[in-house]
DNA sequence: CAGAATCCGAAAAGATACTG
DNA sequence: CAGTATCTTTTCGGATTCTG
């Protein structure tokens, strides 16, 4: 059992210790739509390197947030899915998505004609 | 006007570009309870250094999330408060707090007797 | 395909000392 | 009180190469 690395005991810190970082929320958000294999996640997140994606997924697995399933096939196939605990993060992820969409909308109005587009909203 | 540093246009990335990082969500959460001065924030977040607190507050100010008010007094006094845009982050912050409390509770049950305490829940 | 291993530069963050 | 300035340390993360 991993120790919570929250020194002040703040509830927000606890959450950040599990799903904080640049990539974890994005990975989790994509997994919200269902099980995905490694290559699918990599394609969905163009800016992540193979290395970082692997590292983040391992940490999420350790925290019990995602489940990793390896199929003994050739070519190899590995699936990632949210666990029940992982799915419990949905409200947080949805709140983040909603705010991001609203914010882009506001910015879009000010950067008239810049064509701000927020995809992967589903 | 600062550019959104979201390369893939994912709404979650937009949110992270504004309130991502180790300290910003915690700072914002504390400001949710009302205007606070610099020293009050520093006390509320024991693990942050003066330097990091300053840097994060400056970034939040630049993003239009917090408002900084300097009073021409001796000793100096500086207040930080959420702007309207900042307050719109409340659902995200509350979702994070709620999840953190639930998670600590689960962990607490498994680490029986460890005395997990999550404060600053208000 | 899904990674593991290694190397390396950049960036984040901490400690400490100083100031209007 | 509310910061700056500077320095050092640590971590992050990219590029590349290799493998079952």
UniProtKB/TrEMBL annotation, chains A, B:
Organism the protein comes from? Comamonas koreensis
Q: Which UniProt keywords apply?
A: DNA-binding, Transcription, Transcription regulation
Q: Work out whether the entry's keyword set contains Glycosyltransferase.
A: no
The name on file for this protein is Helix-turn-helix transcriptional regulator
What PROSITE patterns does the annotation carry?
A: HTH_HXLR
InterPro entries registered for this protein in UniProt: HTH_HxlR, WH-like_DNA-bd_sf, WH_DNA-bd_sf
Residues crossing the lipid bilayer are none
**Matching SUPFAM superfamilies, A to Z?**
Winged helix' DNA-binding domain (SSF46785)
Cite the Pfam families for this sequence.
Answer: HxlR
Residues of the HTH hxlR-type domain: 10-108
Gene Ontology terms for molecular function: DNA binding
